[in-house]
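Appendix B. Raw example, untouched.
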Amino acid sequence: MIQNNLLAQRRAGLLLHPTSLPGSYKGGDIGPEAYRFIDFMADSGCSVWQMLPLGPTHTDGSPYQCLSVNAGNPNLISLDWLADRKWLDLSVISIDKDSVAFRSNCLKVAFSTFVERNDQQTILKLNDFTQQHASWLDDFALYMVLRNIHGDVAWNEWPKALIYRENKALKDVELNYAQQIAQIKFEQFVFFSQWNELRDYAHGKGVKLFGDMPIFVSFDSSDVWANRDNFLMDKAGHCEFVAGVPPDAFSDLGQRWGNPVYDWDFLESTQFEWWVQRFATQLELFDLIRVDHFRGFEACWYIPATEENAIKGEWVSSPGEALLKVLNKNFKSLPLVAEDLGVITDKVIKLRKKFNLPGMKILQFAFDGDSRNLYLPHHHENSCVVYTGTHDNNTTLGWYAGLDDNSRSFLHRYLGVDRNDSLDMPWVINRMALASVANLCMLPMQDILGLDASHCMNKPGTTEGNWEWRFNWDQLWPELSSDLRTLNWVYDRIAS
């Protein structure tokens, strides 16, 4: 069985999505500020940068419901990089740089300049890229153009000939919109080129990149439109079931995510070809990958599509063991972390352990007053990843402020301090995470900066104001990197 060499030694890392980086434009990107962040990490003794999925999002900005599981988000493209290559003159762009349309307008100008320059060496690189990624890129480019033509509605609302992918209809679009299709492919070429440069820089600084892969994909995506046989739906896109999770202590109605569920029998008959290709793309981007909702590899909660909530549903088994065996055969290294939060069965634990996959421990989940709580540090193990919280949690400062008396009292007793003592929050929890025997410790940037609940990245169950948080360099005190490096040294987390 493939071992996860990245987690064979103690490391610390930071959790921050690129959109949360500072910068001059709307939303952070993978330009100069990303390089500065890597420098900060290296100076701090942090060697793993974790982020959320990088795919192109819908208008809500959620990276967990992307238009493609393979493509990069063009909004993350560095405009400064384009300007450095003389493909873009930012001084002549008349659109407000804080507007939604600013980046897309800049990318159109850059592509037009690229075509005019007719740089044969770069054109060859572009052609190599499009051929290498044709298995997903051709459909994605066509999908994005069609979606734009039809006012950004989902594919099942397009004309029937396009819904059913009739050959003549698709050929007509390829002919009539060749320039727009080429534009989309150019953007992906630029994104991957920039990302490869950033990854090389990170590796040169001793920093590894840690990505995130949701198990399910958005219905409104090129993946579903182009690969309907992979999902339990008819050719018109009608689903009998959708994905989610049943009611639990946090939700009386459960969670109805609405994603199409997989036709696992069909996928298994293809030797999971689609999954292999998907992992190949992610491993091109990342050194380590978190599998979001790992439980879905053992069983998925099938909700009748007609239901408005997740109460009525059933667990249906998934061939996770067969899939992971195929993935292990196809890749020399399969550096995965299983997101195993929530209610996890013995079967899920057995599957995770069979493939030597580390799970997750969240300290914000630990202090419910039960000393047997598996999230408490004394129950941790080397082969797990410890977090203070994740992108779906409150900041640790906000979490502590909202604790009930029982949880607060238990936390103080755990720390061996009087319940009335003032705690150095969030650093007392940051230190607890760093001191854990877990080989990898991940700290959200909000907890490094000591920020309150107003700085959350996402509030599950809400649809407004998420995914927009950004930090600025003025929030870092001058000694932060040296202070953090000292802590990483104390807890033996400076990777060699």
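End of appendix B.
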